[in-house]
Amino acid sequence: MATYRIAANMEFVRSADKDFGAGVQIAGELGYKYVEPMVHTGWELLSEVHYFHSFSMEEDPLLMRDICAAAGVRVSSISGHSPLMKPEAAVERLTKAIVFADANDSKFVNTDEMIKPEWMDDAEAHDAMRYSLKKAEMVARRHGVHLCIEPHGVYTKTSEGLLKIVDLVPSPWIGVNWDTGNAYLAAAEDPYEALERVRDRVLHVHAKDISYSHSEAERGKVTGTPVGCACGEGVVDWERVLRILDPLDRELFLSVECGTIDEAERSLAYLTKTAGNRLIQN
After folding, report:
1. Which fold has domain 3-278?
2. For the chain, which residues make up each domain, given as ranges?
3. Residue 66: HSE in the Cβ half-sphere, 13 Å Cα cutoff
4. Which residues, 6 or more positions from 136, have their beta carbon under 8 angstroms from its beta carbon?
5. pLDDT for 231-272, tens place per residue?
6. What is the per-residue pLDDT across 93-137, written as a single tens digit (0 to 9) for each?
7. Quick one: which of 75, 200, 263, 275 could link to 230 by a disulfide (CB 3.0–4.6 Å)?
8. For the packed helices 238-245 and 191-198, what is the interaxial angle rounded to 10 degrees?
9. CB atoms < 10 A from the CB of 119, how many?
C-alpha cells in the first residue's frame, strides 16, 4: 500500500511577501516537516530583497539545507519548473535543480512542459522536449534524482499527452508528479480516471484543491493554476485520490499547493486526518 509524507510547497507564503527563510520558518511552526522550495537561475529581484520565496541556484545548495535545518524541516522535492520546449533555458534550470535536490537529500525535481511557442508545431515541440529531457535525465541518473512531469500545459492536460512526454526518454528516473488541481481544472478528461491511467508512473503528488468558485470561473478554460484553496475545502475528492494511489508500493509526498498561510495550516490538518494510518509520522 502507498504511504505518504506531507510537504508544503513554498507558494503558500507568496501572497504574504515572505522570503525563503521566513517561509521555511513558518512552515515548521505550522507543523510541516518537509518543504518544496522553488528555485531559479540568476538573481531574481524580489527574492534578493526578501519579498519572494524562490531560491537562487547561484547560491550554495548547502545554504538551502542549513536554512531548512534551522527551522526543523527537510526538503521533500524541488520545484524546478522549466520550459521543456525551450532547451536553452530548460537544460540549465533542470540540471541545476537536480544537483540542488541531491545536495539537499531530496530525490524529486518537479516540472512541466510550460508554454508552447506559437511558431512551433507539435513535432518540433516534442523534439525539443526530448532534447531537454535527455540532457536532464543523464544528470538525474548520475545523482539518483527523479524528474517528475505534471499536468499543467497544452500537452499534459490529458493522460495520453502526459505519458507521451514522460516516455520521450524511456528511463526509470522520469515519472509523473500528479497535480490534482490542474488535472481537474483542465477538464480534458475525468481527473480520477486519468489518475488511474498514469498511476503506475506517479512518483510525487501536488496536493492542490480547487474552490467551488474557482472551478465555476475557470474549469475547462485553463490547463493549470499556481495554487489552490485549502485541501478539503474544494472540489477534489481526496479519499478517492488516495484509494486510486493505494496499490502503489512506495512512499509518496503530498506537497500542498495553496495560496495562504492559513490554508497551509488547514491543509496539513485535513490531509493528516485523511491519510490516517497511511501517513509516515517521522
Report:
1. TIM Barrel (3.20.20)
2. 3-278
3. 5
4. 90, 91, 94, 95, 98, 147
5. 999 999 999 999 999 999 999 999 999 999 999 999 999 999
6. 999 999 999 999 999 999 999 999 999 999 999 999 999 999 999
7. 263
8. 20
9. 6
